Amino acid sequence: MKDFRSSAARGVTPYVCGEQPDDREYIKLNANENAYPPSPRALEAMRAQMEKLQYYPDLTSAGLRRAIADAHGIRPEQVYVGNGSDEVLAFSFLTFFAGKTLCAPDLTYSFYPCYAKLFGVDYREAPLREDFSVDVEALLGGEGDVILANPNAPTSLELSQGTIREMAERLNRQGRLLIVDEAYAAFGTGTAIPLIDAYPNVLVIRTFSKAHALAGLRIGYAVGQEALIEALNGVKDSINSYPLDRLAAAAAQAAIEDTAYLEQTVSLICQTRDRTAQRLAKLGMTVLPSRTNFLFATHPDVPARTLLQALREDGILVRHFSHPRLENYLRITVGTDEQMDRVVRGVERAIGRA
Ligand code: PMP
């Protein structure tokens, strides 16, 4: 049969999301979703929009962009919003990297190489160090623009803001763009957002899916100097002028304005994370020092696949990657205390059996 696909479509290698099986009830700790529901104010804000669904949403998501700007002490013109940070990333690749050279760590968010392939990006990978930290020299030593998840996934490790600033400075002198994907930054120690005033080459991408517990609505954003935001808007308006629907924009605005709720849930998750890391370490696991809402862990004697299977039999889903350097690790989203008790007990049983 004739192959109707374009050459771009023929070249794709689609990203594989965490599975969503429905054969039984699972504790879902495989997609780094939030352990808690979103702010009640987000739900109220959505209800108020229900009566206006026959009308298109605001073309510029002005209310949400203002709320994001206020939260970070920047201007609304420095904010771009989209349908999940995945879409913001995709538009960023199309806007800034298509047909150009881009460097990224070899072990990072595995959507980056998918976009690179789709948009004809010359994608170069800089190996992480032995301890999974980012090798800044290797990353910056080549040519082209740079993308980096900070904290990184699936390793959960964070580079200091001092290092990010040095990278921004050096890349700026060389006329190279730096995208920092801060999907997990709310669980870490800092943000690169204050850099955007001084550095026209820095774009920071964030999401409402993790700390704000709105993964089901798909909202992400990018912040940077106006020229970068205008460039993104130009591409977006050539594809889909309304990437955010009324419900999503209203919920995200209410969620980011409810700072007390955000602080409370983020702090709970960080406490549960650190307690769980200690308990898994006591069971003999090596757990990387996480600055995210997930743990990246391995056991010296029990293969990750054995643990994965044992947890699955206990009704717990965690994430496993088949890359040779990652295959003996599990990425475990931090759930509630009760859920993490179940994880610790499951790991304990699996180790006992092995
Ligand atoms: N960046 C990183 C590093 C991620 O782990 C994720 C979530 N899988 C995303 C971006 C995308 O998040 P979303 O599309 O839900 O905003």
Q: How would you portray this structure in words?
A:
By secondary structure, the protein is α/β, with parallel strands linked by helices. The protein is built from twelve helices and twelve strands. The protein has a seven-stranded mixed beta sheet, sandwiched between helices. Strands 9-10-12 form a three-stranded antiparallel beta sheet. The radius of gyration is 20 Å and the shape is globular. The termini are far apart. The protein binds 4'-deoxy-4'-aminopyridoxal-5'-phosphate. 4'-deoxy-4'-aminopyridoxal-5'-phosphate (PMP) binds next to helix 4.
Which stretches are low in confidence, meaning pLDDT under 50 for 5 or more residues running? none
Strand order of the largest sheet: 2-8-7-6-5-3-4
Residue fraction in strands: 5-15%
Q: What is the mean predicted local confidence, pLDDT?
A: 96
Q: Can you give the helix content as a percent range? A: 25-40%
Number of helices: 12
Order of helices and strands: HEHHEHEHEHEHEEEHHHEEHEEH
The unique ligands bound to this protein are: 4'-deoxy-4'-aminopyridoxal-5'-phosphate
| C-alpha termini separation | 50 Å
**Would you tell me the structural class of the helices and strands?**
alpha/beta
| Counted beta strands | 12
The gross shape turns out to be globular
Rounded to an integer, what's the Rg over CA atoms?
Answer: 20 Å
Let me know the largest β-sheet: 7 strands, mixed
